[in-house]
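hey so u asked for the seq, here:
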Amino acid sequence: MIHPPSSRHHGTTPRRPNIGLSPDWAQPADSAFPRYELKVPYAEAVFRAGGLPFVLPYTDDPSCVDAYLERVSGLVVTGGAFDIPPSAYGEEAREGMGPLKEGRTAFEAQLIRGALKRNLPVLGVCGGMQLLAVVLGGTLFQDILREVPGARDHEQKHDRTQPQHPVEVKNGTLLAEAVGHGQLMVNSTHHQAVNKPGTDVAVSAVSPDGVVEAIESTAHAFALGVQWHPELMLGTIPVHLGVYKSLVQKAREHRR
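ran it, structure tokens below
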């Protein structure tokens, strides 16, 4: 059973810190123009956690990335139906690799590096967790079913507001502060996973088949990655909002 985290905040509603959100990118077949896309639950989770969400359009100009990071107090790197180029972690592509969005990945990697340099709070969700791991020096399994013996399918086919499998949240971690320690039911929408976590990176949750489900940096104030989508489960398992509440609280503290 999950052990609920203790409540720490009472009294008046504190100021809402600005939280940057990285969007997805798509080229519709019926349009001459690409578009940015962001699932509403990401923004809703930030609102409900006490933050003020801002979408960050892509740029390869470092001065613009710096300007973004000067205007936000925290960062959410979102997920998407694409993979991280294996060259980013020193490997060649193997069978099972999915499509890439190299422009998006390059932009998000710049954001993460800049945020970590400033010690801004960072939350990586699903693919955002995988990229956080890579930026922190880790590597990935390019396809779980091909590369992790005994692993189950981590791409659920049913409603993603419902859980797929449990994870074990380790006590004494940032994640445990957010959602409590012990068993937590999560949704699952990924075919890649963290292999080697990287330097100064702790694994804070694992699924029963041994797949890494959450990581966090031990060298930064708040750099947390979760392999599931907590923002999709706020109505079914409300404790998941704690992930976003922790990010927003750290963002608020960072601005003091």
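Confidence is low (pLDDT under 50) at residues 6-10. Residues 26 and 32 are 11 Å apart (CA to CA).
lmk if thats what u needed
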